[in-house]
Structure formats: structure tokens, C-alpha cells
Amino acid sequence: xxxxxxxxxxxxxxxxxxxxxxxxxIVAACGQQASPAAPAKTDGGAVKPAADAKPAADAKPTTAxxxxxxxxxxxxxxxxxxxxxxxxxxxxxxxxxxxxxxTGAKVTIDSPGPIDYPKKLxxxxxxxxxxxAYYAIGQADMAxxxxxxxALDLKxxxxxxxxxxxxxxxxxxxxxxxxxxxxxxxxxxxAPWEVNTYGMIYNxxxxxxxxxxxxxxxxxTSEWLAGLNKxxxxxxxxxxxxxxxxxxxxxxxxxxxxKDEEIDATLAGKSSxxxxxxxxxxxxxxxxxxxxxxxxxxxxxxxxxxxxSFFNVQELAMFWTGVFSVPVxxxxxxxxxxxAGFALPKGEGATLEPRTYGGTGKNGVVNAKGKQVDxxxxxxxxxxxxxxxxxxxxxxxxxxxxxxxxxxTKISPQLAMFASLADKIQKVYSPMTAPVNEAFIxxxxxxxxxxxxxxxxxxxxxxxxxx
Amino acid sequence: xxxxxxxxxxxxxxAARRATTGYLFLLPAIVLLGMFTLYPFVQGFILSFQSWDGxxxxxxxxxxxxxxxxxxxxxxxxxxxxAAIFGLVGFVFGxxxxxxxxxxxxxxxxxxxxxxxxxxxxxxxxVVVVGMMFAWILQPSVGILNRGLDAAGLSALRxxxxxxxxxxxxxxxAVYVWYHWGFGFLLFLxxxxxxxxxxxxxxxxxGAGAWARFRFITWPQLTPVTTIVSVLTLLGALQxxxxxxxxxxxxxxxxxxxxxxxxxxxxxxxxxYGVAAAMSMVFGSILVALSLIQIWMGxxxxxxxxx
Lengths: 467, 307
Hints:
The structure holds two protein chains of two kinds.
Chain A: H1 2-37, E1 40-41, E2 47-48, E3 76-81, H2 88-100, E4 105-110, H3 117-126, E5 133-134, H4 139-147, H5 155-159, E6 175-176, E7 187-188, E8 191-192, E9 194-202, H6 204-209, H7 221-233, E10 237-241, H8 246-253, H9 260-267, H10 276-291, H11 303-312, E11 316-322, H12 325-332, E12 340-342, E13 358-360, E14 363-366, H13 373-383, H14 386-395, E15 399-400, H15 413-420, H16 434-448, H17 454-466
Parallel strand pairs in A: 3-4, 3-5, 10-11
Antiparallel strand pairs in A: 1-2, 5-14, 6-7, 8-14, 9-11, 9-12, 9-13, 9-15
Chain B: H1 2-47, H2 65-72, H3 74-106, H4 112-120, H5 127-137, H6 144-151, H7 168-193, H8 197-205, H9 210-221, H10 223-238, H11 242-247, H12 259-269, H13 273-306
């Protein structure tokens, strides 16, 4: 009898637990399902229809430019999902400044770190819990988010005058045009506060040690290779670039023979990678391989690895990188300031003046399905204003997109070198797709190992482009 | 008749109650298994016939196109070949090392505890820590290995371990074996400790030497453990991911590319989740087939040893 009562009690308890767990799951599931589709309330109390299945452009910024409503009882809690480690302190300082300005919004910076950032962003989108504002990694990576309606089209606001905060032409790198290869609805989905350029940085002390004049910089890649040979003979670490920058380097060097529109057409899938300019560009890797002037005979290191070799160990004479390496030096090797830079020299027999790969760097995207679209937009706009970009420039440092914020007297010679390349950025707006990117990286690595020819790499790139 | 049926019906209802109780106790495990294993598996299978970018809600059906793509993907097959090499190294060298160490520790009179801890210790580290540590050790210019070779007057043996065709795959495989040998070691040691001492004593009286004792007592007695260890180590080695990603990211070229890394890239870099799911299904089927063959062989070996 007592045993049967115990069993009954046990069974009842288990049923209770199972039912409670199941109910909790159902409630949680319903909550998750409902969340993105639920009407979003603005601070003013107006109910906006959710933009769940709508394209981003359909979500309208209504009162973005208006000052925060007076007499608000509670501040809107905004979350900016930050990817950058180098800009984190500046972002936090700016958030503190913004919060102190009584705008009616309180901003929190969420920083999962650069490695986890894409995963966190994706997980957030799948959970229907995207941050109010966030950073756009690259156009190809972000296209699915834009297509799913997770970004507000900022073009209408730009046209209302916000565009004054940006150097002429810089927003072209963010704009999706009609008929773009990624099939994103035309618009601007990210507001940048950083200009990115790429160039060669070198260690003058190692140049001198290798018998090179640090002031007599190469004007062609033949001269450059001759210099690398001298460094190699002196047993000095010669030249490297991060493996994931191989496509960017190739695209930069190809400008010696290819016009911007030709490169753009190739990236958009309208032309073949087997054009002569691409072939000549890859030939440089062959020449470097045959001369044995690639650092450690391979291009399989990450940019942080090479930054360590260049700034900290100082075993590498030269490497091709972006302006974002300058803040890394400021943070990790502040005493090492005796380095300089130059643009990648033009190819032998170049028919055109070379232009560098580049465009925009860190930026802000406004979540079109967020609960505080207007406040988020206001915050992102505020970040691109002169005072804030000056703070970025001083704290990070970086090349600001706001021309009013760029004070040449306040920047280091290295940053000035990268800034001088800004007007030489190639006007290529179609992003290279991830599979083509991979085809170039793996292909060039295989070329260096003598396992692939130039034609095979270009065939792979064409194949990857076709998807 | 009716009188006879009563007790039987009572027994049936008691049995049914017992079964219900059993199922209820199993329910939490079944729910968790269903939620975190079966449901994702079914979803993955369905996804392998769809196209999805990982963000949007549009998942059109594409039939067998993803599988056709996988079959035509030469890099995937290269990665499978690399995984087979990792599997072979893990299976043969890894298990031989684990068994050798287990036999050595089992025969020790003193200090066995220290070696038990020391051999298992690598497996406790995070894969990222192990990767970073060995990346530094194997670094060509300032790495400890090359510096050590210089110090020992063996500079001719210096190498760019992770970046040369001849050494990239073996270097990663060596790191993998070092990282995982503790697992097999512990299982083999437990197996060795359960072999009855009397068998060895009887064999010694019969004049059996060390090899004969190993061949005719230790090895047959270890067959069940060996089957488990070899299935798990082979599957583990074939599914190698973290070590490769941190050390080489599959490069240079595709020299160290493995299927799990390929699947990861298809999904998270190329945003082709359908293709990644199809790759997972193909790769998973290969693993299941290999496991079944291995278990079957283990059973045959076990029964023939008993015979």
C-alpha cells in the first residue's frame, strides 16, 4: 500500500515536472516566434508595424532627426554590437558621452570580440533578437541580413543632409545600386566613420641593415623585388601579407593594367578572371616565389601574426596591410614609431596608374526591426559627427570619414601615409564573393608550393564565381 | 475460465504499470535526446535538400542539387583524403602509443599515479590553447623547436613545419596524437588492470615469454576495450577540427583541409547551408559505415580469440 502511494506520488511529481517543462518550452517558443513579428512600440507610445517580412527599405525613419522627446519617463535602452577590439575603448567613451547628454537613450556597447562577432550576429538574427545597432562586416557577408530586413536604408536620411558628414564619394562604397550582384534592394545600409586604405609598411632600420636606402622607395615592382633580394641576402625577414589579404593585394596590383570598371565587372560576374591584368597580377606571386623572397616561404599567417612579427619581434622588413595596423602598433608597441609606408609600386609595363584596394571601415547599421529605430538612427548619426569622429581619430587612431574631423597636424606620419592613399582608392563597388576569395587565397598558397599554375587559379576563381 | 483470467489480467496491468514507470523515468533523457540530437539531425537532413543563406526565412527546395555539388567538389574529396590520413595516424600511432604507455604504467611499481596524470593532462587543455602553444613551438623563425635544433647543432633539420608540403600534415597529426593520447591510455590501463593475474601466473609456469603473454593473454583480454578505443579514436581523428583550424586553417593551399573545416566554411563563410548539410550527411554516412565495419571486425576478432 505504502509502496503504491509512493509510486503514485512519484508519478504525479514526474507528470507535474514534465508538464511544467513542456509548458515552459511552449511559452518560450511562442515568445520567440512572436517577438520579431510583434508590433514594436516607440518611445513616444506610437505603435509601428513590425517589419518582419518586409525589406529593409520599407521601414521608414520617421522622426530620426528630431531631438529626443522631452519629459520622457524612461530612457530607451540601446545596444550597439561592436566587432572591433581596437575601437572598443573609443566606443565605450563615446557611449558614456552620449548617455551623459540626456538624449533620452542609454547606449550599451556589447563586444563579443572579432572572432565571435559574426556568430553572435547570426545567432541573434536567428533568435529574432538583433541589437538596435551593429557593425557591418563586409557587403557580401551582410547581404543576407539586408535582404532579411535587419537593416534600415539610410539613404533617405543621407539625402536630407546627413551626407555632409562624409567625404565625397566615400558612401559609394556602402551603396547598393540597382542590379547589384548580391540582389540587395538599392540603398545605403551602413554609415561609416572610418576610411580604409591599404599600403606597404616597412622598417627603415632593417632596410639600412640590408643595404637599402629607406628614402629611395621603389617605383616599380622590379625595383621592389630587387630590394627584397638584398634583404634576403642579408638574412632579413623580407615581405609578407596576411593570407586573407591575398585577394585584396591581387586586386590592388591588377590596377596597373585593369580599369576600375573592368575589375568591378569581373567581381560582379560579368567578366572572366582570365583577363590579362589578373594573370599579370598573379605573376608577381610567382616572381616572389622564384626569388625566394616571401617571408617563411608561405602566405599562411594572419594579420595579427604579422603585426607581431613587424611591430614586436621586428624580424619582418616589410608587409602589406591596412590602416587598421596603425592602432595595433599604438596599443602593442607604442615605443616603435620608426616605421614608414608607401603604396604598392606599379607593375613593369603598367598601362595605368595603380589604385589601392580600400573603402570604408567601421560603421553603424540600424536594426530596422528594432524597438527603437529612431533612437538608434539618431545615435549612429551622432557617431559620424565631427566631435565624435575626432575622438575616434585621437583614441583609435583612424582616418575619419567626416572631412571636418581630419586634422593633418594631429595624425602620425604613418596614418598620414595611409590617408594620402584615400584619393587613390579604386572605385570598385561589387564585393568579391566568399568562394572567389577562398579560390584566390588557396590558389596563391598552392602556387607558392608549386602545386598550381596561374591559369588553374584563375579557372578556380571563375568556377567559384559561377557558384 | 473467468477465475483464471483475473490473475493474468492483474499481472498484465502490473507489467504495464512497471513499463509506464520505466518510460517515465526515461522521458527526460528521451526529450533531451530528441531535442538536441534527433531534431537537429532531421532538420539537417531536410536542409540538405534546400537552399538557405543562414539568415533569411526563404528555404527553397533544390532536390538533389546540393548532393550533386558535393560529389563534384574536388576540395571536399581532398579533405576526406586528409581526414583518412589523420584517422590512420590516430588509429595506428595514437593507439599504439596509448597502449604502450598503458602497459608501461601498468607494470610500474612506483610513480604510476604521476604518469597517469601526466599522460592524461594534454586532453584537459582547450584545443585553442593547444593550437596556440604548438603554433608557437613550431613557428619557423623564433619557435622553440627550431631554436632547440639550433642549440643542439642540428640546424640542418630546421623546418617550416606547418607550411611545407612534406611536414604540414604530419605536424598537425603529431599535435593531434599528443593532445588525444590520454583518452586511449586511460581506457587501455583500465582494461589491463582488469586482466586476471592468474592467467599471467599460469602462463609463466608454462614457460611463456613476455611476447607470448602479450599475444595470448593481454591482447585477447583487451579486445573489447580495443574495439571501443579504436572506434572512438578513429571517429575522433576523422572529425578533427579545432586543432586544424587553429594551427593552419586547412592551409597552406588545401594541404591540411579536413571535411569538418570544409563544412564549417561552406556554412559560415560561403553561407551555403544546404550544401554544408549535404556534406555533413555524406561525411556522417561514411563515419557510420566505418564504425559498423569496425564493430563487426571487433566482434569477429573477439569471437575468434575466444574460439
